[in-house]
Specification:
Blueprint: H1 2-22, E1 33-40, E2 43-54, E3 56-60, E4 65-68, E5 75-76, E6 83-84, H2 89-102, H3 112-115, H4 120-125, H5 129-133, H6 151-160, H7 175-189, H8 193-205, E7 211-212, E8 224-228, E9 238-241, H9 247-251, E10 261-263, H10 265-276, H11 285-292, E11 300-301, H12 304-307, E12 315-320, E13 324-329, E14 334-340, H13 353-366
Length: 367
Amino acid sequence: MAATYEAERDRGLTRLLEIVRALPEGERPWCSGVALAAGTASGPLAEESFGWAVRYAAYDERADRGVELPRERWLPVRRDTLFDLASLTKLCTTIVALRAVERGLIALDGRVAAYAPECTAAAEHGITVRQLLTHTSGLIPELPLYEEDGMERRWARLAAEQPVTPPGTARRYSDLNFLLLQRVLERTAGRGLDRLVQETVTGPLGMADTRFNPPASWLPRIAATEDQRRPWGKADRGMLRGVVHDENAWALGGVAGHAGLFSTAGDLAVLCRALLAGGGPMLSPESTELMLTAPGLGFEVDQPWFMGELAGRRAAGHTGFTGTSLVVDRARGVYLVLLATTVHPRRRAGDSAPRAAAATALARAVG
């Protein structure tokens, strides 16, 4: 029986690798390059990389194609390649928030204004920390903070933004929730979110390749993202590499509650194994259970559109705009990390079918 299970698992993992290997291939590939990490609480099942971390110099809008660099300047994705995590940043912000709850600095049902009184709209409507974490604050998805002149005006515009539905009555995914949460965490801790993530998540777990604003010395290992220009982008910044892709995170100095972290698939696998093992040393098992159980705090729970057949039995995770995704399936005891560059050389309409297909292959491999 054990030999049969192992043979089935190996066939399933081979299928997973076939799916991921094909993602950077073809005339219109899903991504330029991708790194995969899949495993259990005890260790990895598969860690591979395919395609290119750097391939294009620019995007030609007339031809609707990327302008390729000379072939000798293409850089392959390696196991130590860092990717812009985009909204996977929210997961680390969430863990920092749950740790602050454990320490008694904030309460899940505490009001945002009790910790950050400058958030005047949140004060007027009684928005709570839990509503930020569950995207039930009533706030719209985003604001063009990058259009404001100076950091003070950017934060002031966020603080004054009114919810469009009464808090607690409807779910609407919003980056603004995690920017307000960042404000709460920084005010109560007395230091920046970058330090809080290091103290709470990356430091205790030894995730040495995960941080905001990576130093210039890391650039050779960082995957490029987008030739960011209007009209497809929201700012004219050219080909981005080593600086955050998200325009609001960039405008806020690269450290933001919703985006800004860079990491490797291997580092995120360490995070996944810690979550599968109950959250230590970051969080207590009770906080981890609360965070990963429907409706989820910061994490999405049982979402087949990107989790495929891993969804359905308390799988939790998230996706990121740049092409990243992470799933922790506690029922099967497995995780899946896909870090891809779907925005290199430019962003397109999102398609999570490849994420779901990879997750389904892993689900079938482990049964």
